[in-house]
């Protein structure tokens, strides 16, 4: 199996330039042969200098690139016409290669509100269009019909593709989220048994980590300080995930919680990083870097000529994970030596899963390749931490913003579970309003706001506009689909689509909008690649929310701008306050790595002395 670090001395930019240089060198040889053997010998031209050869090689490469682009465009146009289809509308930029369009999309992903600019393009060109940055196809859609084709009905024709896999490889490796074909099927078979009903009811695991997280929250709020709830939930879900995956906890909740910037300055506090906190920081940094690579098309390696930006954080990740994997492999080898009938070449289907086996225990039984094991574990850690922590953060934001929702949810908690009893899976299943709050949060802020697939072969899709011919999807075309924008479409969810209203999941709006078209709600993806851990995530989020509301009466946002440094890029732009819809209402700064998060955190505080439930004091 290829190790992502085998060529760690070579940066992505150096590898990219080496490949292009080699092609240029081969072209130069061809040009020289034509000059010397054909033009000079047979056509009696004068001799050509090396400088002339160099110049003609550049000219040839430029014209060849133009020829390739035009040939591909002409072929696609001919193929579309022959099938009675039309080409997708293309965004018209003002600069060559649509560089201005690429910049606008990149700015939106880096510092804008999700969907900015793309909303305008959709209003002009429709729900599916081609951005064509630097003459490379990049299709965008928020149509549930097209997303359904990508994820389900035409699943075999759409893969992650090179546009996603290459920039992600140094972080995701060969893990399930970066795999296609047989490797993806292999990973899928491995992880499926660990999200069965028996496995997802590990509420004792949730309770161990939730108790410590809530105690940390109580101590800090009781002392009169605000708390970064996103950081706290990141630690909670990370510790629970490592416990679930490894059978041992990363113990990030044992570290001190961060303080707001104003408190650090006023009290001259310095913080020290532990091994677990360094890992958690590197874990997030690596994802942020690879997410930004996607903004620069296939030319992203040119921004990493002098260093691989993921090398430093991923070294921290490997230093943390490799000993855990090595220990598990060694333990499995010792156990195997005592079993004379064990065949190391058995397929994964033949392996038994013990009642107390973790995913790591099972992986080392199936393969002894530490790279495959590490990549799969890391992919699962991203899914287990980021998606759940992000959603819990957004839920807390809404509970602070809508105290009536918080009060009603607390009433349901007390009615179904009581003021102190640990909830069970049966309790969670019966709490309809809790599920509605979670779903409404996932609707407005799905933690994977954008995803990408690439077509294997050209295909024809019916037009959203019945008066227009079907649309043509070229082969190998990457397609970004946005559930974030789809979840907010008023034609799909009604005129109140941008309002936070959990009641929509309990009244006639479900039957009116969702029941006839279930693909308008896809927080966990759909089709063969649907998230296997969605019920685990629902249970984990439900458990934490219940425990929080058993402990606290209410929450408020700390809106003091000094919770962050004055020059912090994570400050929510003040001009957003004048914007319509959720962009103007919500009080956090949504950004994305591989998943959506609150830039700068979500700082909460206790509103008064009544924040603590008397039964728990």
UniProtKB/TrEMBL annotation:
Keyword Protease (UniProt): no
Q: Needs which cofactor?
A: heme
| SUPFAM superfamilies the record matches | Cytochrome P450
UniProt keyword list: Heme, Iron, Membrane, Metal-binding, Monooxygenase, Oxidoreductase, Transmembrane, Transmembrane helix
Residues reported in the UniProt entry to bind heme? 531
Residues that span the membrane, as ranges:
21-44
PROSITE patterns according to UniProt: CYTOCHROME_P450
Q: Which family does it belong to?
A: Belongs to the cytochrome P450 family.
Q: What is this protein called?
A: Cytochrome P450
Source species of the chain = Collybiopsis confluens
């Amino acid at each position: 199996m290829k190790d992502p670090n085998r060529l760690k001395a070579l940066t992505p930019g150096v590898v990219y330039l080496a490949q292009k240089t080699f092609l240029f060198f081969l072209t130069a040889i061809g040009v020289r042969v034509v000059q010397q053997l054909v033009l000079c010998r047979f056509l009696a031209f004068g001799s050509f200098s090396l400088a002339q050869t160099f110049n003609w090689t550049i000219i040839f490469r430029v014209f060849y690139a133009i020829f390739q682009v035009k040939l591909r465009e002409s072929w696609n146009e001919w193929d579309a016409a022959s099938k009675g289809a039309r080409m997708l509308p293309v965004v018209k930029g003002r600069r060559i290669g649509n560089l201005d369009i690429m910049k606008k999309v990149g700015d939106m992903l880096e510092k804008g509100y999700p969907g900015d600019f793309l909303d305008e393009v959709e209003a002009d060109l429709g729900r599916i269009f081609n951005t064509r940055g630097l003459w490379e196809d990049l299709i965008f859609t928020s149509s549930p019909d097209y997303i359904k084709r990508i994820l389900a009905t035409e699943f075999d024709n759409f893969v992650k593709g090179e546009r996603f896999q290459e920039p992600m490889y140094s972080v995701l490796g060969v893990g399930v989220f970066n795999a296609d074909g047989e490797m993806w099927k292999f990973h899928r078979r491995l992880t499926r048994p660990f999200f069965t009903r028996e496995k997802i009811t590990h509420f004792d695991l949730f309770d161990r980590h939730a108790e410590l997280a809530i105690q940390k929250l109580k101590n800090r709020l009781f002392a009169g300080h605000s708390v970064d709830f996103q950081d706290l939930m990141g630690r909670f879900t990370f510790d629970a995930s490592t416990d679930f995956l490894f059978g041992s906890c990363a113990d990030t909740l044992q570290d001190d919680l961060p303080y707001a910037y104003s408190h650090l300055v006023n009290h001259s506090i310095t913080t020290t990083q532990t091994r677990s906190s360094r890992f958690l920081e590197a874990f997030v940094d690596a994802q942020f870097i690879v997410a930004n690579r996607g903004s620069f098309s296939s030319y992203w390696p040119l921004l990493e000529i002098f260093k691989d930006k993921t090398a430093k954080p991923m070294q921290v990740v490997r230093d943390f994970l490799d000993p855990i994997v090595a220990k598990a492999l060694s333990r499995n080898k010792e156990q195997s030596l005592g079993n004379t009938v064990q065949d190391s070449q058995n397929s994964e289907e033949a392996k038994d899963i013990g009642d107390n086996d973790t995913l790591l225990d099972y992986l080392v039984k199936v393969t002894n390749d530490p790279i495959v094991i590490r990549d799969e574990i890391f992919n699962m850690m991203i899914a287990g931490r980021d998606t759940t922590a992000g959603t819990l953060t957004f839920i807390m934001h809404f509970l602070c913003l809508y105290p009536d929702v918080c009060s009603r949810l607390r009433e349901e908690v007390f009615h179904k579970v009581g003021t102190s009893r640990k909830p069970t899976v049966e309790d969670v299943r019966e709490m309809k309003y809790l599920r509605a709050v979670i779903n409404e949060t996932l609707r407005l802020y799905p933690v994977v706001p954008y995803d990408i697939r690439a077509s294997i072969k050209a295909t024809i899709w019916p037009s959203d506009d019945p008066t227009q011919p079907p649309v043509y999807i070229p082969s190998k075309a990457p397609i970004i689909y946005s559930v974030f924008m789809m979840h907010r479409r008023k034609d799909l969810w009604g005129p109140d689509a941008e309002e936070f209203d959990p009641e929509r999941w309990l009244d006639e709006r479900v039957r009116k909008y969702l029941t006839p078209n279930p693909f308008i709600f896809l927080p966990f993806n759909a089709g063969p690649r649907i998230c296997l851990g969605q019920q685990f995530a629902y249970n984990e989020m439900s458990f934490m929310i219940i425990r929080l509301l058993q402990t606290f009466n209410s929450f408020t946002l700390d809106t003091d701008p000094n919770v962050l440094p004055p020059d912090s890029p994570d400050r929510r732009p003040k001009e957003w306050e004048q914007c319509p819809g959720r962009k103007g209402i919500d009080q956090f700064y949504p950004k994305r790595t591989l998943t959506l998060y609150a830039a700068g955190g979500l700082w909460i505080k206790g509103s008064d002395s009544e924040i603590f439930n008397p039964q728990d004091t």
